[in-house]
Amino acid sequence: MIHARGLTKHYDDLRRGKFVAVDAIDFDTQPGQIYGLLGPNGAGKTTTLRILSTVLRPTAGTATVNGYDVVAQPSMVRRQIGFMSANTAVYDRMTAWEMVEYFGRLHGIASEELTDRMERLFDRLKMNDIRDLLGAKMSTGMKQKVSIARAIVHDPPVMIFDEATAGLDVLVARALLDAVAELRDHGKCVVFSTHIMREAERLCDRIAIMHRGRILAEGTLDQLRDWWKQDDLEELFYQLISRSEEEYLQRLRDSGNGGLAAEGAG
Fold first, then answer.
1. Domains in the chain and their CATH numbers?
2. Which of 196, 226, 248, 266 could join 46 via S-S bond, C-beta 3.0 to 4.6 A?
3. Are strands 189-194 and 158-162 parallel, antiparallel or unpaired?
4. Distance (Å, whole) CA 129 – CA 126
5. SS3 (DSSP) at 238
């Protein structure tokens, strides 16, 4: 479904030289699977997801989404994905229905088909009580429902969630996680970025742990626990990140100066 090989993104920085955000990573995701991207701030998660969603162009390497290349076929890639993040905005002067309808039309869905699809979607997400509510009057939880609806109205095979639960209260976050699990159960390929280990343990079929643009470990939760002899995911995460940071600092010292290119962003 998603296949990345040698995916790389760097920027030229006048002070620091080449700034490496994503450092030649490889990974694959499948239908009916939630693939978790874990990492601290600056690990490269958001940059990776922006490349997959065609917002950024990679410096090197390749990535395909449902068979379409993110560089050569960006318009086709955008048809394959729904994207949602903690920063996804809702227009204050549009109702929930108008918002979802607008995005459905952007995807070229015929009017009658779009109406039928939206009716089913509003029932499924329990949104009928807010269908005529303006965005300016919505609670955070209501806005999250609208964001999910507009991301899946065109029925994409791939869903990307970039720290979508950040800043949500427990009840709203749980409802969102339930919706993500339901998408997986409907056969969607879901890429789920989070800082919260409990979310990853609950949802993810496979997990990749990133730091400074590199994937340090990747596998099922059981595989990671077995390989690293650590049952607690948070402790496993901490140990991998700490070791990686020590190795990075050692490379800085070995270089003999502080000018080694920075690694990891987003």
1. 2-255 (3.40.50.300)
2. 266
3. parallel
4. 8
5. helix
